[in-house]
């Protein structure tokens, strides 16, 4: 398996390139519109055919590159079950698996950041957590029908039941972290370690964060799979 972590500096967003080297087919998870040329060039350099663009959720902080990549490569755009994106080629529900040769990508429904959100477990070892779990943090729950209680349940009852050595790759990082493990986050993540569900809900209700800069343009564009024009 080929696995690459790519970064967009403006929005602190990670995009993941996953490929099967036998079939030379690839998946991009959470591509960013402004980085489409970077992603296209990397696919070309590695001789990979893009089969799918996979979203963890409908993003509020950046516009997805899926529409542009679909236009360039003919790939399919996939979003979580119940996402408000009628343009998607496919919706992926909890437990569904996509296979590319020897690579298996399993969806794990992790609601809470938004009302439709998937984490993706790759070959049982690499967990792409989107905005449900960050390294020493988690995504916010105060808009897009977010729900702190549902996030706590998804992280503690689903993600934290995976083996401790499972590698955690988040959708964003703002402090320079690139990878963690489930065992490390269970022990060190200040949002979840040592507290209970009610304390987590109270903590999330009092973050008082400003809205993402691109929320007004990003959400409607992403409901059109990244098409900027209405």
TrEMBL record:
Question: Key word Hydrolase present in the record?
Answer: yes
Q: What InterPro entries does its record include?
A: Metallo-B-lactamas, Mito_Persulfide_Diox, POD-like_MBL-fold, RibonucZ/Hydroxyglut_hydro
Stretches assigned to the Metallo-beta-lactamase domain: 12-172
This entry's Gene Ontology molecular function terms read:
hydrolase activity; metal ion binding; sulfur dioxygenase activity
Under SUPFAM superfamilies, the record lists: Metallo-hydrolase/oxidoreductase
Q: Name one Pfam family in it.
A: Lactamase_B
What protein family does this chain belong to?
Answer: Belongs to the metallo-beta-lactamase superfamily. Glyoxalase II family.
What name does the UniProt record give this protein? Zn-dependent hydrolase
Biological source species: Nostoc piscinale CENA21
Q: What is the lineage of its organism?
A: Bacteria, Bacillati, Cyanobacteriota, Cyanophyceae, Nostocales
């Amino acid at each position: 398996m080929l696995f690459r972590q790519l970064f967009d500096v403006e929005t602190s967003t990670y995009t993941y390139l996953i490929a099967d080297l036998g079939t030379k087919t690839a998946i991009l998870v959470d591509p960013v519109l402004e980085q489409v040329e970077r992603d296209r060039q990397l696919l070309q350099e590695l001789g990979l055919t893009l089969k799918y663009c996979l979203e963890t959720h409908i993003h509020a902080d950046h516009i997805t590159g899926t529409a542009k990549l679909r236009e360039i490569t003919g790939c399919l755009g996939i979003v979580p079950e119940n996402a408000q994106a009628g343009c998607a080629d496919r919706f992926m529900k909890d437990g569904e698996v996509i296979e590319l040769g020897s690579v298996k990508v399993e969806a794990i429904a992790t609601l809470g950041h938004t009302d439709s959100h998937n984490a993706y477990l790759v070959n049982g070892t690499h967990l792409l957590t989107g905005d449900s779990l960050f390294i020493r943090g988690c995504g916010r729950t105060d808009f897009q029908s977010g729900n702190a209680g549902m996030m706590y349940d998804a992280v503690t009852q689903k993600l934290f039941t995976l083996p401790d050595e499972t590698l955690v790759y988040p959708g964003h990082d703002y402090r320079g972290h690139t990878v963690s493990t489930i065992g490390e986050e269970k022990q060190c993540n200040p949002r979840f370690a040592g507290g209970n569900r009610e304390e987590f809900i109270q903590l999330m209700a009092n973050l008082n964060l400003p809205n993402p800069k691109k929320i007004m343009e990003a959400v409607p564009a992403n409901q059109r799979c990244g098409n900027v024009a209405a």
